[in-house]
Design brief:
Layout (H helix, E strand, L loop, with lengths): L2 E6 L11 H4 L4 H14 L3 E6 L3 H14 L3 E5 L8 H10 L3 E5 L21 E4 L4 H18 L1
The structure holds 1,3,4-trihydroxy-5-OXO-cyclohexanecarboxylic acid (DQA).
The site of 1,3,4-trihydroxy-5-OXO-cyclohexanecarboxylic acid has 10 residues, from loops.
Length: about 150
Amino acid sequence: MSNLLIINGPNLNRLGEREPGTYGTSTLVQIEARCRRVAEELGCGLDAYQSNAEHEIVERIHQAARDGVACIIINPAAFTHTSVAIRDALLSVTIPFIELHLSNTKAREPFRHHSYLADVARGTIAGFGPIGYELAVRAAADIAADDRS
Ligand code: DQA
């Protein structure tokens, strides 16, 4: 069974209350529950992690290598636009990863247009709201299956 990991960055613990016009009304707990159901349907295990701290996200990525995670889905939130440390952590573990955003970052303020992860991600899903998480789980299961064969 392939193990998938979803990592959510700062302020995503406030989904549901945080700027619902931009990020939707689903809570992170609801989104994670849907992802677990989709992963189960696809025969994958799924862990979900959220932190507001950059160093904790770096540590969780390192832990993923020790756990043999097959694919990481990451919504780095604001760290997308600032974090060389998270980029380097993902490169250091060589686990394929999908960059994910609820909003279409390219259609927002200019400071959100640049991502430190986009050029090293397998792909990016952005702008579809909470359903993007389910799309990402499906894509991650596919990547994990391909990498096994
Ligand atoms: C976000 C987009 C980021 O620019 C922002 O800082 C977030 C959420 C998204 O999911 O749309 O916190 O990653």
